[in-house]
Write a structure and sequence with these properties.
By secondary structure, the chain is mostly helical. The chain has 3 helices and 2 strands. Strand 1 and strand 2 form a beta hairpin.
């Protein structure tokens, strides 16, 4: 089980990223717009730099929904490999069977 503070920090980042995403997209469009004056584009870049770093989507870490484990994460199931194996063995994940030979 991951530290609760790490899980909570990641959740705060998710919320902040959702909140700042429209601002980031708007400023990014202004900064890349070639029809605008160079000073306006520079101002847009400076405003982007003033936004909180944790508001960026790339700072969000994929974590297991059950344990919070950050590594060996399967996006399709939103679980770590350990929990995926446990739940798969119990038959709690539809369509997933443990291979045996």
């Amino acid at each position: 089980m991951a530290k609760l503070s790490s899980i909570n920090k990641n959740e705060r980042r998710r919320k902040l990223a959702l909140k700042t995403q429209p601002k980031i997209e708007k400023l990014k469009a202004q900064a890349n717009d070639k029809s605008l004056d160079e000073t306006e584009r520079l101002i847009a870049r400076l405003k982007m730099a003033e936004l909180p770093r944790n508001g960026n989507k790339t700072r969000i870490r994929n974590r297991c929904e059950l344990t919070g484990r950050p590594r060996a994460y399967y996006r399709k199931f939103r679980l770590s490999r350990i929990m995926l194996r446990e739940l798969g063995n119990k038959g709690l994940i539809p369509g997933l069977t443990k291979s045996s030979w």
